[in-house]
Design brief:
By secondary structure, the protein is an alpha+beta fold. It folds into 5 domains: 108-180, Nucleic acid-binding proteins (OB fold (Dihydrolipoamide Acetyltransferase, E2P), Beta Barrel); 198-268, Nucleic acid-binding proteins (OB fold (Dihydrolipoamide Acetyltransferase, E2P)); 273-355, OB fold (Dihydrolipoamide Acetyltransferase, E2P), CATH 2.40.50; 359-440, OB fold (Dihydrolipoamide Acetyltransferase, E2P); 444-536, Nucleic acid-binding proteins (OB fold (Dihydrolipoamide Acetyltransferase, E2P)). Helices cover 19% and strands 40% of the residues. It has helices spanning 14-22, 93-108, 176-197, 272-279, 359-366, 409-412, 444-451, 519-550; strands at residues 29-39, 44-48, 54-58, 63-64, 67-68, 75-84, 87-91, 116-124, 128-133, 136-141, 157-166, 171-175, 200-209, 212-217, 220-225, 246-255, 260-264, 285-294, 297-301, 307-311, 333-342, 347-351, 372-380, 384-389, 392-397, 418-427, 432-436, 457-465, 469-473, 479-483, 500-509, 514-518. It has a 5-stranded antiparallel sheet with strand order 3-2-1-6-7. It has a 5-stranded antiparallel sheet with strand order 10-9-8-11-12. A 5-stranded mixed β-barrel has the order 13-14-15-17-16. A hairpin with a 5-residue loop joins strand 2 and strand 3. It is elongated, with a radius of gyration of 53 Å. It starts with 13 loop residues before the first helix and ends with a helix. This is 30S ribosomal protein S1. Belongs to the bacterial ribosomal protein bS1 family. GO terms for molecular function: mRNA binding; structural constituent of ribosome.
Amino acid sequence: MAFDNESFEEEENFAEMFAATEKQQETSRIVEGEIVEIQADENRALVGVGDKLEGILSLDEISKDGILKFNAGDKIKVMVTGYYNERPKISYKKVLELQKTIDFIDAHKEDFEDVIIEGIITKKNRGGYVVEADEVSFFMPRSLAAFKDTDDVVGRKIKAQVVKVDEEQNSIVVSRRKLFNEERKKKKDIIDKLMEEDTLVEGSIKKITSYGMFVDIGGVDGLVHYNEISYKGPVNPSKLYKEGDIVTVKAISYDKDKRHLSLSIKAVQSDPWAEVESELDEGDTITVTVSNIEAYGVFVDLGNDIEGFLHISEISWNKNVKNPNDYLTVGEEIDVEVIEINSKTHKLRVSLKRLLPKPFDEFMKKFKEGDIVTGAVTSLTDFGAFVRIDGVEGLLHNQDISWDKSTKCKDVLKSGDEVEVKIAKINQEDQKISLNRKALLESPIDKFATTHKVNSIVTGTIRDIKDFGVFVSLEDGVDALIRDEDLAPLEKSELVSGQEIEAAIAIIDTRNDRIRLSVKKLDYIKNQAMLEELNDNEAHSLGDLIKDKFK
């Protein structure tokens, strides 16, 4: 019989190959012998095989678990396989193996081509390999082994298909290549049928991995990727299934080059997104169950194999949410608003905070501009501090922390501090709140105004020179401005920071917190004083002359 274009005509007879391996002689025969003596110390028995000849039999062949099956005087069948120094080489084990082989041939001689054996490769010879399975020896020619010449296969466990039995030689030939071809053809037929008929089939889960499950469909393994398990999206298969479970799948693709069969469980089910798209709209309020919590947000179950995503920014109006676990727990039922339905990507986004009262609206009901309140510092920046007041954050700018212009929020505050502030401005359109702390402190200019008035002459130090004028530091940290037009008769180019300068007070504006000085006015005041003094002196001199004349 020929199959797969294979022929056994070029192969040596199995019996001859096996004989070559064992170095058996053609005189090998089975005889009934008698155990003459048990030599336990040397782990052997002497067996008479006729012609006054005694062979040596290892006790390992006639014992089990250290207990001998035969004793001296017992009859025993052994195989004479040859001679060594004219003493017969005998084996009881080979008689058993031969009997097993004969029994196997008798049982399968009519249907041997349907028999697949699984055994261990025990020997390798010039013609092929000896495979032992269930105490039966099989021969696998090299051409039917599908091994590379370099492969070291002795001791390897294999499967092979019986392709020939020889009752006369008591030999059985198997082929690993034949089995491969048969299995490949069988798998191809199954895959072709799955892809052509687009049918649903049941399979058994063989292995679960982090990226999916391998499912056996009638001897063909296919992969159900974790994206193809549920319409929820990627899921951990080990949380839903265990090895051995029976699942209904559908073939969705086959890569002929890689021989990869892709299966799907969710393709068997009706698409719940069709229901979502027909019944839900953005803005709808739905009840969901928290199914999973991550650092970046929360997954919620709609109850129909669809999950929505609640981003961390949509949990609360509080912008400083750090951990969703502080707000929600797995298994909790919550009402959320649908804010996005993407039918193409099958993504659903929801919001919890949009169903909660807006903190800014609640703030507007309680507070107004000018109110003095106490809040907690939530964060500090280079430009100021954010202060939380009744769930809403307001900005306390550096310029509004102190009358000392060099003081910054970072210098006097830290996160968590409570601070009393005045609500300076509420921007309803942008929902921004400006706060002021220095308004609650005594203004240095108010204090300055109690001891100084317009036209008073003061002396200060030039702090800064600008394009439009000169800033002067006065007593108690008070700053004043001399504009360019009020510097005369001084030359601005001759002035330097740190230089003392004398001027007259031109304006004290406590409402807008500013003081204006004028050198020009100082010059005018001094000139007026000199003129008045001169006039006084002249009037005094004229009076004296008149008085003397009348005398």
